[in-house]
Amino acid sequence: MRIELERRAAHSVVFSALSPFIALGLTLVAGIILFSALGLNPATALFTYFIEPLTEVWSLHELIIKATPLILIAVGLSVCFSSGNWNIGAEGQLVMGAIAGSILPILFPDQAGFWVLPLMLVMAMAGGAGWAAIPAYLKNRFGANEILTSLMLVYVAQLFLDWLVRGHWRNPAGYNFPESRTYTDGQILPEMFSSGPAHYGALLALIAVIIAWFMMGKTIKGFQVKVIGQAPRAGRFAGFSARKMTLAAFLISGALAGLAGISEVAGAIQQLRPVVSPGYGFAAIIVAFLGRLNPLGVMAAGLILALSYLGGEAAQISLGISDKVGRVFQGVLLFFVLASDTLIHYRIKFISSRKHA
Amino acid sequence: MLEVQAITKKFGDLVANDSVSLEVSKGEIHALLGENGAGKSTLVKMLYGSLQPDGGEILWHGKPIEIPSPSQARSTGIGMVFQHFSLFDSLSVAENIALSLGKENDIRDIGEKARQVSEEYGLPLQPDTIIGDMSVGERQRVEIVRCLLQDPELIILDEPTSVLTPQEADALFETLERLRSEGRSILYISHRLDEVQKMCDHATILRHGKVVGECTPADETAASLANLMVGADVGDVTRTGRGEVTGEALLELHNVNQEAASPFAMELTDINLSVRAGEVVGVAGVAGNGQSEFFDVLSGETTSSDNASVRYNGHECGSMGITARRRLGGAFVAEERLGHSAVPDLSLSENLILARHGSDSKSFLGMGPLGVIQNGVIKSVTKRICEEMDVRKSGEDPDASALSGGNLQKFIMGRELDRKPSILVVNQPTWGVDAGAAQKIRQAVIDLARAGSAVVVISQDLDEIMEISDRIAVMSDGHLSKPEDAESITREEIGLKMGGLHDG
Amino acid sequence: MEMTEAILLTIFTAATPLMIAALGELVTERSGVLNLGVEGMMIMGAVAGFASAQITGDPYLGALGGIVAGMLFSLLFAFLTINLVANQVATGLALTILGLGLSGLIGEAYVGQPGVKMLPIVIPGLSQLPLVGKLLFSQDAIFYFSIALLIAINWFLFKTRAGLTLRSVGDNHTSAHSLGIDVIKIRYLAVMFGGACSGLAGAHLALVYVPQWVEGMTAGRGWIALALVVFASWRPWRILMGAYLFGAVTIAQLHIQAIDINSLSFLPSGLFYLTGLIKSIPSQFLSALPYVATIVVLVIISKNRRLTLINTPASLGKGFVPDR
Hints:
B: alpha/beta, 23 strands
């Protein structure tokens, strides 16, 4: 048997909407197989993974906390990827955002006032955007592949953070632990509800989603992104500059990744540590694709990925399975998303081998 | 020798070949005539094994055969020279030839063999040259030599002269005569009637996937062949007032020089041109002589450091981009429809925004700096264009890729004409477009000029250039010849210029 | 002298996996497929190589395990990008993400276990040669293999009909198809070859370089291998140069970090001062050197656009759907 593709006359609207769900369904099937292989009852395991975290208030808070950076980053990446620019260094931009946003609380801990937190957010966005500007500049100026440069800068950013928190930025009263001082009230994103720790970072994510949705769907700027991403030559014909777009796309996604960084550090962790993200910058790539590069889709996808983190922790505690299973799920999900997207442009035919000599 | 019996091929709902039959005997040149989209290419792909028929039979020397692959076709004795060359740009001549020959040939000897054959048939070639560095005519020689090295009994040529100068075409005809005299058969695919009448012994005519006639071309008139091919009288475009253009110059180029942007691009040298209100200037030339670079310079997709080198309506705009030039009254239709003039997976109304977001920003965009797209306005303009140009489509606002080539080109032309631009630059207006649509597009171009606009038409189709131009210039090796009156210039003169004999 | 030799030896060891992975990717890319999943295939090769060596006790079976794992893993990529024409960049990323996760899960059982080390094979006679003897002829089997691989790939690509066919597919898949070349089959084979090489490169890390399993132990080497292919502008011999350059950078920074400044007091004072200065660079900055070097090298190579454009396989990264 072999597979043949037949190009559809026009892209299928039905499958555009359906493909993420097909991918989720296939991932669940893969989950059943995986859990069975690990000798677990798949029903119990899937319940622990995907339902249980939704049944308690504190875990809903955790869900929001984990979804916040994923959505923030993925919204930026969805703009970036739509424009045909491959920023896969969001993890590094997150780190640089966290560092830049922490300059105030760490170096000027005594500064107080309503302006401190907003300024921290702005500095974080500048930090992330600045880091992202490097691959954009290298691509525009020298034609250097942005995939490789943006990724290499992740390692550099992580090492830089490591150096800071083990060196100059180490908490003087911290018993030599590689951690910065902890932030105080005016430097911390406040909690949104009295029922738990979910902080205002989530609101920032929501605002980012709405702005991006409006820009991408309704305005000429969003139209530019789409055209340059789908057909660069046609973009030139329309008078859109691909170079400016590359820079803008990296700046936007870098700024949002930086915002995610400070929202983690000033919201959830409340200090700098050698590691401030469990790979949100990479998981957000999956979120962006699962959300079909649509900001509203990204929001839903961010919640689903956040659930896989939570479920991973829950399953580790109650079933004793490795938290790495969650990572595997995420990878498998991305595969199925990409495979399902084929259905949007092609009909898939399975043809039984009819071989002539 | 070759007999095709009731062969059928379907692509989805489309019947590309509907019970087509054809016979080619030994030592004849047999023409396969038909318009673009008549099913000629589908038929020859089945003969060459690239496609498999859904029904019918192919007989070779009277015996039914199957041709599952091109290599099978080659070992049977069928060779093919493709229309869009199937050569590899980064490989050498010898490597290209080696790829199509069987494994029994040692790849180290092929260069020498190629040299022998090419000398024998008067088609000089250097085996070590990289294809990417060769001209279109030279590439065709490689294709032919590659085909001859397989010693085929039947050679299929798909629109071989569409990329050649008239002089190169004449040389090709000599080679074909020689092959016929050796007893080889040739299946010659074309839509050019004069060639077919000049050279071919028999002709089979295809229309909409069906055989609609068979004849001896020498016994027919060009008009009767055309009627068979097209099905009805298409009629000529109507032109009034040719040669009486006295309007002011709307589009001017002064000493435009442009370096090649990539290793595969052409350099433009000292281009001067002035197009007046009311006239169509045709730019002829063989593909790859700088036409697309020329188009980019005119449209502003490539900008120059010398602002004075280009003038629109008297305004200097050499360093301005395409949007600014559109605001000055320019309108552009690029050669490539999907991916250049239009984005395949965007709807027609979105493709309207593509070219007019700048020139029509007042009505198309709202809310000031936010630039919110006004869908209502855009949809109604799209509808107006489709009605005006008779664009046939499925659904209200389909993707550009869902339209046939002709209908999409009509939409793209309509998108620009709807603005009543004072300057129109079109590259290959009717490439791959059916005769009906082509006629409509050419007429629209002439009408626009007569209404007082300046029009530049770049085309490789010399017939088209002769038909619609008031003055004709020739692009060759990045140079543009001085435009001459279309009434007085002859095809031969144009041909010589296409071959590189530019003035100055 | 002893120390210089030891340093050179470690450079060879650091360069070998880079070279093998980059050579594999070069063949894949020459067929027109851009597989960004090298990191993922490498880490799968590392964990599979380590595990199969642990289970069998034989490092050579370990290497074989790495090859098989890399190849199987690359099939996932091949199916998506070749059969389903999925976006090659995104699918390559997916392969890397999945590989890092899956290897972590599989490797959990092996964390902290001492590994089975692949020992050097000393070639009698030749290894006694002055200077180069120990370096070139007293190495592990994978090193010898990497050199053989380089020669074989160079010969294959430019001297054989199969290599010519592979290059033609990378140059223009539509023309290749119209000549009757089976584009899909050739691309499958090229992707699988790349996977096998990445797998072997990963196994080398877990069997020779640091004979143990550490999660994420490839540490970006797959990405550096990808950069090497660009650096080499798709020419095998230049991969040799690039891999050893990067091996040298990696090892140099490690040695600077490890060196005891007091043991160098015999140096002339100027040199001693300079060494002290370099030593005062924080270790994190030294560790960042290979990554920064990758960026610098990419910039330098890409600056020459003409060179890059001419050498890049023309259909690289583009999906192929034959018309039927």
